[in-house]
Amino acid sequence: MIVLSLNCGSSSVKYQLYNWDNQEIIAKGIIERVTIGNSFCVHEVNNKEKVTVEHDCPTHKEAIKLIKDCLVHSEYGAIKDLFDIAAIGHRVVHGGEKFSKSVVINQEVLKTFKELASLAPLHNPPNIMGIEAAMELLPDIPHMAIMDTAW
């Protein structure tokens, strides 16, 4: 099973692609300078050279698009098709008292995250922007939230 993890911050998006069955990281990377200009992605796939891709990402949606493109790129991609991804895990800093464990994200959960945004005002809003972007761009893949506060 292939799992994509996303950690969306205010000006960066970190990602890792896992082969869950083998407990192996297939690809990983970070997009820097999201929303502030001169964005770039440092993308690394096992057994391949690290690649830096310059691409403007004025929004988290553009950053998620860039991640998608890197993962399936003909030269430096890690998978052939995005449908190889079985699930997407999103880091959420603060789930309040409402979430004590990981949860499948739906519109109700997303609404609750927005209500709890003030609990981690520097972290939860960009987490939410990344979730919304990923759910829009990859709607056929289940999305899960993993809260720091659930540990």
From TrEMBL:
InterPro entries in the record: Aliphatic_acid_kin_short-chain, Aliphatic_acid_kinase_CS, ATPase_NBD
One GO-annotated biological process of the protein: acetate metabolic process
Keyword set, alphabetical order: ATP-binding, Kinase, Nucleotide-binding, Transferase
Gene Ontology molecular function: acetate kinase activity; ATP binding
Name of protein: Butyrate kinase
Organism field: marine sediment metagenome
Taxonomic lineage: unclassified sequences, metagenomes, ecological metagenomes
